[in-house]
From TrEMBL:
Keywords noted in UniProt: Disulfide bond, Glycoprotein, Immunity, Inflammatory response, Innate immunity, Leucine-rich repeat, Membrane, NAD, Receptor, Repeat, Signal, Transmembrane, Transmembrane helix
Protein family: Belongs to the Toll-like receptor family.
Region forming the signal peptide: 1-22
Cystine residue pairs: 423-446
MF annotations from Gene Ontology: transmembrane signaling receptor activity
Domain TIR per the UniProt entry, residue ranges: 645-788
Single GO BP term: innate immune response
Name under which the protein is recorded: Toll-like receptor 1
Source taxon at top rank: Eukaryota
Main location: membrane
Gene: tlr1
Organism: Notothenia coriiceps (black rockcod)
Statement: the UniProt record of this protein carries the keyword Flavoprotein: no
Length: 802
């Protein structure tokens, strides 16, 4: 499919199929079905029919009589030779008709168009038309917006029958090897944009270019392969043109022709130049000069391919960054760097989205010193979406001299910030987009102070730290798709009016924290895993109030349709508005008053019954027996019971938590820090043995077992086996032989049913919880080492053997 056909197909699909999903069978795809005629059983609900790539030669009256709702029809790539003039009599809603790549012969005899007065898009390119003379039937297409044609000869008066039709786009497909154009032939055309599509190695006609530049505001030249010198000469001759927007699409060009053409265009009245899908060759090894004065407002380059392997990338970057325009865009390009202009640049907008830029952007190295760019001080908007940027702090240094910068978009990168180094943002940034990166809560220590709109969606923010920069102007904060567990406090954002927290980890939002947000008007907490218990009553009340007409407080977005319970199981997937949590079940005073009276009566009855049935005596006996068992279990372990024990503890964990175990747990238990002997699978499993044998051996050689609990742990089958065998060993060593370490919050409802023993242990025994605050880490390690400390009689022997 040619670029012209593809573009028109996309336009037709976009315009003709809006609202075409009214019925399930509104779209009918019969392409490449080896059809020789239009099927008679087309569904009457059909709004879009694709009959392309078949062998249809004729269209008859009544072919579409059963499809009165038809809006889009594609019969391209067939063998059409003739169309009955009443073919479309029964399709009054037809808006998009593609008849390209067929064998139609006469543009002045397309009588079927008399019944297509609602057409918006008509594609007749790549047929066998000798002349471009349009018949009188074209004058009825008063609503036509896009027209594609192709013929061998274009003469004066060919377009007189569409002189009153105001087109958005006219496409001339110059598809034949020999074709002729008569100067002035396009004078009758009223179109905003003219597209000229060449085939093969065709060169543009001098008169066609002259008419194009003097008659159309927007011109697109497609599939150019040569003739750039002639085009440049014509541009030099016509400094003033009607054309303000020039598009060069799918071109093959040398670096010299490209730069010469750009420099010439900079001296013309053309204000917008866009080059897309360009293949470049003969790339430079030295600098290329750029015209320094220009009327051009914007330059855009999109999707470039370079054929050469060896050339000066810096020379290429220097040429583009020094183009004197207000808006410079180079998108979807294989660029790894961008240099700094040689002088103060007039550029107001820079767009380098979807490239391969790194943190060194705009900087240069001289000796051992990195010099930052100071020549882009007029830039107001910078777009670096979809690159290879990694350090937020480094990016702040790269743009620190862009004093006029207001809008900065750094989304879809790999940005992180550890909070250790200071950031150097320019002072006037008001709109900051950092979505889809790897940023945590520390990012709030590295933000421009003048920020008004901040987008941090799809990051790793779990908490907003209390010690953050005060963003006194911040009005909108987007934290959708992060890891927040509760509503933030607005101490650092006194003017915040919009807070978006969709798709986080909020179970029971603390509504009282909203008291610190006096200006908050809009709140979105939809699609969170709400726990429908007493803690959620105030939030449900907030949602109900937000829908009242007289409500003037916080507006809760998407309430109630996107707010559902995830726990308890009995009300899972229930809408929050349908959940009723009685106040008596949540108010301790009311609950005590409701229970206390009956409880006293029951207690008196029980005491009386116990006195008469000698229950105290039986209870005393049971208590004595229990104490005896307890003392026996708590007796000191004899040295002979420790024979074969080589380790203080065996550590069981999920492979997904290995970074924390290797970098935090083991260094604080083993060696000089802890002095303990720790057994874990990466060090102690013996090759050749089965995993089960290794697990049992390690448990038998260890005095205690440490289980690192997380959401990853309960998903691991091997962690389940280790817990199972350790629970059996617990019967011999006692309850203190198992130590639970909670790496992250692990609600009971997230633990699978097969982990019943783990639920039991967590309910009956105290476990150590890993603190997020660094100041509490030392006490955590001290408690864990104390829980694992034991005398190992074989420890010294083992060390000597090693």
């Amino acid at each position: 499919m040619t670029p012209v056909t593809a573009a028109l197909w996309a336009a037709a699909m976009l315009m003709g199929l809006q609202g075409s999903s009214s019925f399930p069978d509104s779209r009918v795809d019969l392409s490449s079905k080896n059809l020789s005629s239009v099927p008679r059983d087309l569904p009457w609900k059909a709004e879009s029919i694709d009959l392309s790539c078949n062998h249809i030669q004729l269209l008859h009256k009544g072919d579409f009589k059963n499809t009165p709702l038809l809006r889009f029809l594609n019969i391209s790539w067939n063998s059409l030779k003739d169309i009955d003039e009443e073919t479309f009599l029964d399709t009054p809603l037809l808006k998009d008709l593609d008849l390209s790549h067929n064998g139609l012969r006469n543009l002045s005899g397309q009588r079927y168009l008399l019944h297509t007065e609602n057409l918006l898009v008509l594609n007749l390119a790549f047929n066998t038309f000798l002349t471009m003379t349009l018949g009188s039937e074209f004058s009825s297409l008063v609503k036509l917006e896009t027209l594609a044609l192709g013929a061998q000869n274009i003469s004066l008066g060919d377009f007189k029958n569409i002189a009153k039709v105001k087109l958005r786009t006219l496409t001339l497909s110059l598809e034949n090897k020999t074709w002729n154009y008569t100067a002035g032939s396009l004078i009758d055309v009223q179109a905003q944009r003219l597209q000229i599509a060449l085939t093969g190695s065709r060169i543009l006609d001098h008169d066609l270019v002259a008419d194009t530049l003097s008659l159309f505001a927007e011109v697109e030249l497609m599939n150019l392969r040569s003739g750039y010198k002639d085009l440049s000469e014509q541009l030099i001759e016509r400094v003033e043109t009607l054309t303000s927007h020039l598009y060069l699409t799918n071109i093959y060009i040398s670096w010299k022709d490209l730069t010469d053409c750009v420099n010439i265009l900079l001296r013309t009245s053309i204000t917008h130049l866009r080059i897309s899908d360009v293949t470049m060759y003969n790339m430079p090894f030295q600098e290329t000069n750029v015209t320094q004065t220009s009327k051009m407002k914007s330059f855009t380059a999109r999707k470039a391919v370079v054929k050469d392997f060896f050339f000066s990338q810096e020379a290429v970057y220097n040429f583009f960054i020094n183009i004197p325009v207000e808006s410079l865009a180079m998108v979807e390009m294989p660029m790894i760097h961008m240099t700094c202009p040689k002088s103060h640049s007039p550029i107001l907008q820079l767009d380098f989205s979807n490239c391969a830029l790194s943190d060194s952007i705009f900087s240069r190295v001289e000796g051992e010193e990195i010099l930052e760019c100071e020549k882009l001080d007029n830039v107001r908007k910078l777009n670096l979406v979809g690159n290879n940027l990694r350090s937020l702090q480094m990016l702040s240094k790269r743009v620190q001299y862009m004093k006029s910068l207001r809008h900065l978009d750094l989304s879809i990168n790999s940005l992180v910030y550890d909070g250790l180094l200071e950031c150097f943002w320019p002072p006037n940034i008001t709109n900051m987009t950092l979505s889809s990166n790897g940023l945590t809560g520390s990012v709030f220590k590295c933000l421009p102070k003048a920020t008004e709109n901040l987008d941090l969606q799809n990051n790793q923010v779990s908490v907003i730290p209390s010690s953050i920069l005060k963003l006194g102007n911040l009005s909108s904060l987007n934290l959708n798709s992060n890891r927040l567990r509760d509503l933030p406090v607005c101490t650092g954002f006194p003017l915040l009016s919009e807070l978006l927290l969709k798709s986080n980890s909020l179970h029971a939002p603390s509504v009282n924290k909203l008291e610190s947000c006096p200006e908050l008007k809009t709140l979105d907490v939809s699609y969170n895993p709400f726990t429908c218990t007493c803690a959620l009553r105030s939030f449900i009340s907030l949602g109900i109030k937000s829908k009242r007409r007289s409500h003037t407080g916080i507006q809760l977005l998407s309430w109630p349709k996107d707010y559902y319970c995830t726990y308890p199981e009995a009300v899972r997937d229930f809408s929050l508005k349908d959940i009723s949590i009685p106040e008596v079940s949540c108010n301790v005073g009311l609950l005590a008053a409701a229970i206390l009276g009956p409880a006293v009566i029951v207690m008196i009855a029980i005491v009386t019954m116990c006195h008469h049935l000698d229950v105290p005596w039986y209870m005393g006996m049971i208590w004595q027996w229990t104490r005896a068992k307890h003392r026996a279990r708590m007796r000191q372990v004899r040295p002979e019971d420790l024979l074969g024990v080589e380790f203080h503890a065996f550590v069981s964990y999920s492979q997904h938590d290995s970074d924390w175990v290797q970098n935090s747990l083991l260094p604080n238990l083993e060696g000089p820090a802890g002095g303990l002997q720790i057994c874990h699978h990466e060090k102690s499993f013996v090759p050749g043995k089965t995993i089960i044998e290794n697990i049992i051996t390690c448990l038998e050689k260890s005095r205690r077992s440490v289980f690192v609990l997380s959401a990853n742990f309960v998903k691991s089958e091997w962690c389940h086996y280790e817990l199972y065998f350790a629970s059996h060993q617990r019967l011999a060593w006692g309850p203190d032989s198992v130590v639970l370490v909670l790496l992250e919050p692990l609600p009971q409802y997230l633990i699978p049913s097969k982990y019943n023993q783990l639920k039991s242990m967590m309910n009956r025994h105290t476990y150590l919880e890993w603190p997020q605050e660094r100041a509490k880490h030392r006490l955590f390690w001290a408690n864990l080492r104390a829980a694992l400390q034991a005398d190992l009689p074989n420890a010294s022997v083992t060390h000597e053997e090693e």
